[in-house]
Amino acid sequence: MIRAALKSLLGRKVRLLLSTFAIVLGVAFVAGSLVFSDTLSRSFTALFASTVGDVVVQPEGGATVDGAPSTRTVPAALVEELRSLPGAARVDGNVNAFGVYVVTKQNKVVGGFGPPAIAGNWTDAPAGHGLEGLSVTVGRAPQGADEVMLDAVTAEKAGYFVGERVRLITASDQATLNPRLVGIAGFEHGGSLNGATLAIFDTATAQDLFLEGDDAYTDVWVTARPGVSQDELRDRVATVLPQDLEAVTGDDAADDAASELLKAISFLTTFLLIFAGIALVVGAFLIVNTFSILVAQRSRELALLRALGASKRQVTWSVQLEAFVLGVLGSTLGLGLGVLLAIGIRTLFARFGLDLSGQSLVFTPRTVLAAYGVGVLVTMAAAWLPARRTSRIAPVQALRDDVALPESTLTRRLQLGLVLVAAGLGALWVGLFAEVPHGGWWTGGGVLAILLGVSSASPVISRPFLAAARAAYARLFGTIGNLAGQNSLRNPRRTTATASALMIGLTLACTMAIVGDSAKASVDRSVEENFVGDYIVSNVFGGPFSPSIATRMAAVDGVTQVIRQRFQFVERKGDRQGIAATDPATIDGLRLTMLEGSTDDLVDRTVLVKKKFAADEGLDVGDPVTLTMPSGKETYRVAGIMDDNPLVFTPLLTTLRTLTDAGFPAQDNALVIFGDGSVGLQRGLDAVVADLPIVTVKNEAEFAQEQREPIDQFVLIIFALLGLALVIAVLGIVNTLALSVIERTREIGLLRAIGVSRPQLRAMITLESVVISVLGALLGVVLGTGFGIALMYAVRDQGLEVISVPEGQLLVFLGLSLVIGVLAAVFPARRAARLDVLRAIATE
Q: Where are the transmembrane segments (predicted)?
């Protein structure tokens, strides 16, 4: 039986090729995501290990939730005391700052998105355990306020050479710098900053720029003498530290920094794996359909095996053996393609600033196990139902000329489908509307159950459509159209199973189209109803900018008021929480709608909260709110509850001084500009930021467009990833038609014999393909519209109050289904038209 199964598989290589390709694509996505994730992890772990000393002395709360330095520092006087400790080989103070951008000669910013723009002071201190750190590879270290050193990758991208002036933008009081480049820093034996940019000054200059001239450091490295462990040195250092400072080993500091960052970007792997799962589900439909057709075509052969003495189990497992071989082959090819995909993902993210070119790809055993486990299990599970049907073949059927493989009744499929849809609707309701942990899993499970339920019931619910298509074809295309319609009706299971693969991809695409369009419509309404002032000034990268810009803009002719806005992330109940700040003296200009309390009550150490946050947290005016700030745990009083406002991006709003007292730097994130309407006001504002390419001035329409851009980009990425599922669905249509042509070889020969021309035959196959694709598209559009509206209704209290259905986009999807149907039929129709008439008639 094993030999017979393998010979059968080898005898149908072409038929199984497209099914194998579906597994290859799904496994490639899984393997590529895991390889990229492991490479990312290894790269950041290695980077942080080379950027900490043996022991790191730092203030408690020395970094914000985002990892940026706070204003809390280590006094320089402590350095001399630490140098006298036994076991300390040397002590070096570090000054670090974020938001220092390198600008090219063409006024373009190097990096900006993703990895940070870092600045600091130069020291030649070794990293922990003597690991290689940055070293001067060209030129020399900076000396004096007019000199700077860049990392090698940044200098190359910016096109600067030693001796030239470098343009820098900072978020400190001095917004622009133009020092001379005197050196290039890098890792002599390989290594990378993973896309971050680095500008290095001497210590005194760095303290003047980023610590307001204080003789202090953001942290201090203590290097251990030979034979002294990090733990021993840490304990000795801790004995001389004041209460507000802490000592951690370099290993712990590197692990904490790497784990926090990897936790923050872990969504990338999850995001990719979700779409790998979608591709595998769609691929499973293709495999089920392929094996169903192949088993049906081999029913007489399998009956003959039963007549020769093969048991039901042997016949069933012979089909499963074919699926196993197919799964192994697909997984092997998918694993190789996954490595190429990981390289592609790495290249893609490098375009957005996350450059991992210094780290070779990491290929771990879990990737291999996941690839083969997923590929083989999905293939065998998909082939199980067709394999199970083989057990119903009676040996006596081998004696018949026409063997029909037993199928479950359409009534049973309809009942199963209705049960799955009911269960899916229940799970979807729980995930969207009930307060349960892991609501996303409920929602995803509900969507999958509904899709499987509709797929199961589709042979029944789609029959009216197939009958209408046959009638329309007969009227439009005559006898050929009638034949095409009858072929679709002849086996509704096969037709709808093929359409279901396309249905899944288009369902998700339509859902995301509605989510994206509704989100943009909600943004437009919110901006239109709440926009105040004449212009908004912000950082194109979403980061801070120099507070001197607000001062300079206030002096522009025609400006009547400038409102500063600052945003930070803090910790509340173990979770990351955004908080904004503004000046109470100018808060009335924001025209906040207060539901309880008054803007006059906003003073230092109080907060205004948005209505949803207040409802979720059970907060009323006067209640305390505890937040973990760089200064430690702080408790603030609720001064009022406000309605949503597009100019307040976070649920909490406090005063500027509250944030600076908590340890955050005095850096602005947005400005609201009011003017007197005079001609040339915007030109004056633009002139202030002419040499600052990271800062833009926008009117109401431009601000709304800026808010819509991230939504467009996100939806575009979703569509690109769903394209993989649609490709597999198209392959499914091609495969089904190709196998159908093989199955109907004799029928096609007879049609040709009675006068059907090759163009007519190609037209018949094409019309069958169009029926399949349009059916899948209609089901997908209907389900996607329902899912999209339900999802937007569920989040209507989160500021997305407008539900917008992009009818034009949905019509485009339906139009594309026609194109897909025509293109998918090209190969099968060509194959059918080229069949030799006499040989086709003689085929059994």
A: 271-296, 323-349, 369-387, 416-434, 440-461, 497-516, 714-742, 763-790, 810-829
Does 256 lie in the same domain as 239?
Answer: no
pLDDT higher than 70, residue 403:
no
Q: Are residues 443 and 429 in the same domain?
A: yes
| SS3 category, 59 | strand
Report whether pLDDT(191) > 70: no
Residues 571 and 485 in one domain: no
Distance CA 200, CA 148 (A): 6
Contact (CB, 8 A) for 638 and 619: yes
* Beta strands, E only, 299-385: none
Pair of tokens at residue 210: 């980023």
Report the half-sphere exposure of 632 (CA within 13 A, side-chain side). 5
Higher pLDDT, 325 or 148: 148
Output the average pLDDT for the chain.
82
Sign of the Cα torsion 754, 755, 761, 763 reads: negative
* Dist CA 769 CA 738 (whole Å): 11
Do the beta carbons of residue 615 and residue 569 sit within 8 Å? Answer: no
Please indicate, yes or no, whether residues 189 and 200 belong to a single structural domain of this protein. Answer: yes
By three-state DSSP, how is residue 189 classified? coil
Three-state SS for 104? coil
- Cβ–Cβ < 8 Å for 295, 389: yes
Q: Which residues of 133-164 are buried (b: 16+ CB within 10 A; e: fewer)?
A: bbebeebebbeeeebbbbbbbbbebbebeeee
Measured CA to CA, the distance from residue 774 to residue 214 in angstroms comes to 70
Q: What span, in angstroms and rounded, lies between the C-alpha atoms of 792 and 777?
A: 22
Give all strands of the β-sheet with 176-177 in edge-to-edge order. 101-103, 167-169, 176-177
My answer on whether 730 and 686 are in the same domain is no
Burial 689-728 (b: 16+ CB within 10 A, else e): beebbbbbbbeeeebbbbbbeebeeebeebeebbebbbbb
- Taking only the tens place, the pLDDT of each residue in 522-560 is 888 877 777 778 898 988 888 899 999 999 999 999 999
Domain of residue 373, residue span: 1-55+249-407
User: Which residues have C-beta within 8 Å of that of residue 372, sequence separation ≥ 6?
Assistant: 328, 331, 332, 335
* DSSP annotation string for 571-631: EETTEEEEEEEE-GGGGGGG---EEEE-GGG--TTEEEEEHHHHHHHT--TT-EEEEEETT
Domain tally, the chain? 5
Instruction: Check residue 318 and give its pLDDT.
Output: 77
591 in the Ramachandran plot: left (φ > 0), alpha (ψ -120 to 50) or beta?
left
Same domain, 226 and 320: no
**DSSP SS3 for 218:** coil
Q: How confident is the model at residue 208 (pLDDT cuts 50, 70, 90)?
A: very high
Q: Residue 663 in contact with residue 71, Cβ under 8 Å?
A: yes
Cβ–Cβ under 8 Å, residues 829 and 765:
yes
pLDDT tens-digit map of 639-690: 999 988 877 888 999 999 999 999 999 999 999 999 888 888 888 999 999 8
Token pair of 190 as six digits:
């390989």
Q: Dig out the tokens for 767 from the structure.
A: 């019309």
97 and 241 belong to one structural domain? yes
Q: Coil, strand or helix: which one is 568? A: strand
Q: Are residues 259 and 289 in the same domain?
A: yes
The structure's pTM equals 0.75
Span 342-382, pLDDT tens digits: 888 778 777 766 667 666 788 888 888 888 888 888 888 87
Element (H, E) at 101: strand 101-103
pLDDT of the residue at 366 = 86
Q: CA triplet 546, 551, 556: central angle to 5 degrees? A: 125
What are the pLDDT digits (tens) for 630-653? 888 999 999 999 988 877 888 999
- What are the beta bridge partners of residue 103? 109, 167
717-746: pLDDT as tens digits: 777 777 777 777 777 777 777 766 766 777
Whole-number pLDDT of residue 202: 94
Mean pLDDT of 15-44: 77
